[in-house]
Amino acid sequence: MQKLFIIAASCLALSLALPKNFGKDPKDQQSETKWDVKDPGILSFEHREKLFEKNGHRVDGTAVVNKNFVDKMDPWKAGGRVDYKYLDSKAGASLEALNAGRFGTKVGAEGTYNLYKGRNSALDLGARYEQSFGGQFGRSEPTFGGFLRATF
């Protein structure tokens, strides 16, 4: 328990010490660190970093860690995501993986196309693939789907 407290306090200190870019859209910042306590006892950290941006191409990386301190059987969950956007064509792609210890690893891929982007809203059309590997039930069947996502 002491080790968990030291890790949580270190992450909190790091997130508070990082310089903030006020007045900018959070998606345009170089990096962003968030921490949150969801439902009582679930601690979550997320760090997003702009890895590359040149000639209309942009690559962002995100790392996520969370732990449920109420349910002792729930393992640490750690994962990452890489997002690619071609800004000139409004198209993008994402790859992600989330490891949940004995429950296995979930991987996914997503492709999106922006249909509309307003000042405070957006409408995206996309397709998604997801599959789990390892864990108690072994490899799952792949899941494919399409979506229409609105942001306000």
TrEMBL record:
Residues of the signal peptide: 1-17
Origin superkingdom: Eukaryota
GO biological process, one term: innate immune response
A GO cellular component annotation in the UniProt record: extracellular region
TM regions (residue ranges): none
Stated family: Belongs to the attacin/sarcotoxin-2 family.
Protein name: Attacin C-terminal domain-containing protein
Taxonomic classification: Eukaryota, Metazoa, Ecdysozoa, Arthropoda, Hexapoda
